[in-house]
Amino acid sequence: MKVFYEFKTYEFDESMRGYDLLKKLGLNPEEHLIIVDGELYTEDRVIKKDKEVKIVKVTSSG
């Protein structure tokens, strides 16, 4: 899979759950969204290795 996060591109040659992908990248699952081919994925959903993934950091202000 090809993963885009903060102007960097990562490639993985395996399918994995969203949670595992975020952990491999050292990212907190509570602070990031996983978008696969334009669709929002939950962290427990498996992302197939042929997909394009965009990771988006969630920000809030209060």
From TrEMBL:
InterPro entries, A to Z: Beta-grasp_dom_sf, Mopterin_synth/thiamin_S_b, SAMP2
Pfam families linked: SAMP2
Protein name: Sulfur transfer protein involved in thiamine biosynthesis
Source organism of this protein record: Fervidobacterium pennivorans
